[in-house]
Automatic annotation (TrEMBL):
This is Poliovirus receptor-like. InterPro entries: CD80_C2-set, Ig-like_dom, Ig-like_dom_sf, Ig-like_fold, Ig_sub, Ig_V-set, Nectin/Nectin-like. GO terms for cellular component: adherens junction; membrane. Keywords: Cell adhesion, Disulfide bond, Glycoprotein, Membrane, Repeat, Signal, Transmembrane, Transmembrane helix. It holds the Pfam family C2-set_2.
Amino acid sequence: MIFASFSLPYGVLMSHTLFLLVFALVCSRDARAQVADGSITVDEGGTTILPCKLTQKLSENDNVEQISWQRKTKGKPKLDNFFTITKDDARLVNGPDRRFKFIGAFAEHNGTLKLSNASVLDTGIYSCVFSIFPSGYPTIKIELTVRVPQRRSVESTQPTLGNKEVPLATCTASGFKPPASISWQTDDGLKDKVRWTNSSTLQISDTTTTVSTLFGKPTKEINRNKVQCVISFEGQNKTLDFEIQIYCE
Ligand SMILES: *[C@@H]1O[C@H](CO)[C@@H](O)[C@H](O)[C@H]1NC(C)=O
Ligand SMILES: *[C@@H]1O[C@H](CO)[C@@H](O)[C@H](O)[C@H]1NC(C)=O
Ligand SMILES: *[C@@H]1O[C@H](CO)[C@@H](O)[C@H](O)[C@H]1NC(C)=O
Ligand SMILES: *[C@@H]1O[C@H](CO)[C@@H](O)[C@H](O)[C@H]1NC(C)=O
């Protein structure tokens, strides 16, 4: 559900576009401005629509002069006017960003944008402001959340035959909050021959990437041994099977 609300009193009757824009900024901080239930969640790297359609009936005198988009996001924490749509033109205001495209129709009072390759920095509040002369500035707000999906993987480090301890494999768990923890399971015969370390990195998305590296001597004996990477998160274990591969030089 998306709200539209007229939040300006009548009487600010100045048609200069710049003034309208500045006033719209002030207006959007109005305590009566509503944050919509219009909330959208998209995975990092995904594409989403930011819908914006004026539903109020306009009076005969009303003229939609402009649709402008504002945002306040992780990446742009200060209110940022970033897209302006008029009868003749639809453009980004503050520097290029090809990920945003206008797909609405000005004549139908539809200011819908498409955002592709979403980043966690895009998470925040988006406002679509209609500048209508003389009646006001109905505003539609959308709360966008860009999610980092949980991913688990195990990979060979392609060790070559030798007698010195080297990394044999890495196991990675990303997109977790709180952090996932990683351990390895081996047959009894292998237990004394391997060890592992792990590291966790907090990402800008507020989730953690944990990487565990399995170490051992890359000998013939351990070649083709089966191990399991166990990723634990909130009491649940997921096991990834892995077969150690030692390469000849
Ligand atoms: C607004 O435009 C978008 C993109 O073309 C379209 O999908 C949507 O249906 C339109 N909204 C309305 C209410 O017509
Ligand atoms: C998507 O955005 C990321 C940065 O957030 C960039 O590294 C990547 O190249 C972009 N991918 C495409 C297909 O544009
Ligand atoms: C990291 O590895 C050590 C052993 O090297 C282990 O004691 C610890 O619990 C591990 N931590 C996580 C978060 O997996
Ligand atoms: C999950 O794996 C850890 C580490 O291997 C183990 O200590 C724990 O008992 C397992 N928990 C469950 C529910 O299987």
